[in-house]
Amino acid sequence: MAGSKSDYLEDAVLDHMLGGPDYTRPATVYMALFTAAPTDAGGGTEVTGGAYERLAVTNNATNFPASSSGAKSNGTEFTFVSASGADWGECVAWAFFDANTAGNQLHWGDLTSPKTVEDGDTAKFPIGSLEFTED
């Protein structure tokens, strides 16, 4: 599975750790779905239409439990609104941002099994299905 910290977050953490300005983690992060995967530099094609909106997730230890051995996963199920009025297409990747629209990409990853979200479907990510790693 491809996925990583974004270039933005890599720079923010390096500056925070080594002589730059302190990085303050956002209180809420926003999960986005993509039909073409982003990269560390951003980009990709985020889902649009069909009542799609990024999923607001409180950035706390319940939703993101403590890491172990350089890895962390989601501690609760993340559930998007249902597609309504149009399909979202084949979702192939996810990313977290620090804003509901635009904002800075923080982490991203490919879906291990792409999912076609059709009108009426709900995209869900069960506990432990998202993985964040440090190398």
Key features?
10 strands; globular; single chain; six-stranded antiparallel sheet; mainly beta; 135 residues
Structural class: mainly beta
Mean pLDDT: 95
Ranges where pLDDT stays below 50 over 5 or more residues in a row are none
Beta content: 35-45%
Outline type: globular
Number of domains: 1
Quaternary structure of the protein: single chain
Using only C-alpha atoms, the radius of gyration works out to 15 Å
Q: N- to C-terminal separation?
A: 14 Å
Query: Helices and strands, in N-to-C order?
Result: EHEEEEEEEEE
- What is the β-strand count? 10
Please describe the biggest sheet, giving its number of strands, its sense, and whether it closes into a barrel: 6 strands, antiparallel
Helical coverage, percent range: under 10%
Count of DSSP-assigned helices: 1
What does the secondary structure layout of this molecule look like, with pairings?
Layout: E1 3-5, H1 7-17, E2 28-36, E3 45-46, E4 55-58, E5 71-73, E6 78-82, E7 89-97, E8 105-117, E9 122-125, E10 131-133
Antiparallel strand pairs: 1-8, 2-3, 2-4, 2-7, 5-10, 6-9, 7-8
In short:
With 135 residues, this protein is mainly beta.
Explain this structure.
The chain contains 1 helix and 10 strands. The protein is mainly beta. The chain has one domain. Strands 1, 2, 3, 4, 7 and 8 form a 6-stranded antiparallel β-sheet that branches. A two-stranded antiparallel ribbon has the order 5-10. Strands 6-9 form a two-stranded antiparallel ribbon. β2 and β3 form a beta hairpin. It is globular. The two termini are 14 Å apart. The model has no long low-confidence stretch (mean pLDDT 95).
